[in-house]
Amino acid sequence: MRADFYLIAKPRFLEEPLRLVCELARKAYDGNLWTLILARDAAQAEELDELLWAFDEEAYIPHQIAGTDDEDDLTPVLIATPDIDAPARALVINLRDEAFSGQCERVLEVVPADPAARDPLRERWKQYKARGFDVNKYDM
Q: One GO MF term, please (predicted)?
C-alpha cells in the first residue's frame, strides 16, 4: 500500500487546485486504474464533476458523482460526497479533512499551498506510516 502526498506549488495548481486532481484522475484512467475521489462536500464534488468535463478538450475521463445513477460500478472515476458510502477502489484521491481509513492499493493526498493547511497533513503522513503504507511526497 502506498500513500502519495502531492504538494501544490506550481502557479497553474495554486490558482486552481482541483486541476491537479483532474490531472491525477486522467493519469489513473489512462493507466486503467479505477479511481474513487473523496470530495470534501457536495459543492466540491459538483465543481470537480464540471472541471473533469472541461479541463482538457482532448481528454475524456468517464466519471460521475456517486449515487446519482445506477452505474457507479461501471464508471472508472467515481466522485463521492461524505454522505455516500462508496466502496474503495485500487486508487483513492482523498480531498477530505481526515486520512482515508479504508483498504486500497494507493491513496493520493493533495496538499494545499497554504502552510497552515499543511500541519494536519503531517499528522496524516504519520497515520499512513503507522498503518504500513509506503509514504512519498511530490512537489507539484
A: DNA binding
Contact of 56 with 26, CB cutoff 8 Å: yes
Rounded CA separation 118/44 (Å) = 19
Chain centroid, CA 42 distance in Å: 14
End-to-end CA distance of the chain: 22
pTM of the model: 0.93
- Number of Cα atoms under 13 Å in the Cβ half of residue 52: 24
The runs of H, that is alpha helices, within the chain are: 11-15, 17-30, 42-54, 115-130
Give residues with Cβ within 8 angstroms of 117, minimum separation 6. 111
Percent of the chain with pLDDT over 70: 100
Domains and CATH numbers, the chain: 2-139 (3.40.50.10110)
Q: Give the angle 112-39-9 at the CA atoms, nearest 5°.
A: 20
Q: Where are the beta strands (DSSP E) in 1-140?
A: 2-7, 35-38, 63-65, 77-80, 91-94, 106-111, 134-139
